Structures are given as structure tokens and as C-alpha cells.
Amino acid sequence: MPYLIGADVPEAPAGHRFRQLLDSSPGILQMPGAQNGMASLLAKKAGFNALYLSGAAMTLSMGIPDLGMITVDEVAFHIRQITRASGLPLLVDGDTGYGEALNVMHMVRTFEDAGAAAVHLEDQLLPKKCGHLNDKKIADAHDMAAKVAAARKARRHLYIIARTDAAASEGMDGALARAKLYLEAGADAIFPEALNSREFFVEFAKRIRAEGYPDVKLLANMTEFGRTPFYTAEEFQEMGYQMVIWPVSSARVANKAMERLYNSIRTDGGTHKQVDNMQTRAELYETINLAAYEALDSSLIATIVPEAMPQRG
What we know:
This protein is of the alpha/beta class. The chain has one domain (6-247): Phosphoenolpyruvate-binding domains (TIM Barrel, Alpha-Beta Barrel). The chain contains 12 helices and 8 strands. It has an 8-stranded parallel sheet with strand order 1-8-7-6-5-4-3-2. α5 crosses α6. The longest helix has 20 residues, at 249-268.
């Protein structure tokens, strides 16, 4: 039930549920991006067992660029609405940790309290950029390792993924050296960002396991319009990855649909040409489980959904 109540609220900590799901998944763990509570419900309805909250999706919903401008509390607001609505384990984009080691520890506790299951930290410097853009500023590897260690120390159950953006500037050797350092600092998994070919994905997976980490879990990012070619979840699994995210896909689709709607209202004087593209009132109420809410309060009369729009007089 949306905004889970009573017996519907999961008892196990979110991080434990995420780890169990990852370890027991028969295939690669698929985590589509969900930028708000409604998106999380639609993803759950489609059959997904875990979700991803992207910094880029949060910022675009606020109408600002993804440059590390948002705060821990703003992210916590998004975490709360998604986890309360869906109850699914949520991996959250932690950007650069919002500061140094103490800030990272504060972030970890705040995200846990808000309901997050996992977080990834990246080795960029502020102002950070999307991992698929040019000329990113990369942090000192040991400074990043200190942040990972701080996150590990602060967490109660949060699953910690270390992201490295170094492949573009330091090559495969540099990205692998960083990944090993982050694992030694306490990361649970590694996220090599913006690899641009199947060969790079396969090489990274094979080498990190051959160099002392045979059981390490790896996360792949399948964002559109970036440096990574289109691969399916099954293809990433074949390359040696256990998790895959589609960070901004739902937000991109929603934005394009809203753009068409507004242009149609402006051009046609109303929404009549867009009705077939809309979620109906009945579909909305089913998704948010309106009937279950009404049943909680005896003073509410059960809603009867109109069968059709009134005809024009």
C-alpha cells in the first residue's frame, strides 16, 4: 500500500534488504531511476524489486543543473517520499558526499534515517559534473578513500558503493588502482562510470577480480545520450556486472510528455488532443491505492470513479 502503514512497513533495515536482494538475485539486479513517489509506484507495478534515485533526476525536477548544488536534506526529502510510497530498497546518488569525511558521515546517517538502502560516492571534486561529460575534476584517490572509510564507519546498515570517474582521465589502470584502494577502505561494491565500450566493461570486471577481489560486486550505468553505448541488462550481466541502473530515463520520458502537453494546450486551446496519452483517473487511483486509504477512515465515503468524460452540450 502506498505510504506504507502498520504491518505493510518492512521490518528489516533497508540496507540488509538490499544486500539480501543482491545476493539472492538469479540475474543482474535491475534498478530503474525513480525521481518521486509516483515514479516509484509505477516501477514497482512493472515488477522491479529495487530502485535508483539519481542526483541528475532530482536536480532536473527542481529546474537546476546537476552540479552538486543540492543539499543532504533536499535529497532526504526525495528518499522519504520514494521509500514510503514503494517500500522498495533504494540506491541513492550521494554525489561527492557533500563535503569531507565528517560531512560524509552526516550524509550516511541522514540517508539511513530517511529510508535509503544504499548509496554511491564519487571521486570528483566540486563543482562536480555528470559522469558522462567532459573535463571532470578528479579528487585525490586517498582523499576519496578517506570518505569511503568514513561512510563505512558511520553506517549501521547502508550498502556503500564507490564510484570512480577516473577512466576518462587516468585510463583503465588508474580506474582499477582507485577501485582497489576504495575496496580496501571499506566499499561494498564498485561503480566504474562512463566506460565507453564493451571491451572496457569486460576488461574492468576481469581485471578487478583477477587482482585480488574475485567476489566484488560491480554496478553499470545505462544512461541515455552519454558515453556508454546501449546495452541490455542481460548484456551487462554477461560482461560481469551484478547491478545496473537507468538513472534519468523516467524523468526524460516524463519531461518530453509534459513538453508535448504544454505545446498542445498552447496550440489547440485545451488538452483534448492529449487525453489518450494520459493516465486515467481510475488508473491513478489504482496506482496510489485510494480505496485502501479511504478504508482507513470510516468518515470517508468510497469514491466512485466517473465512467467517462461528460459530453459537450
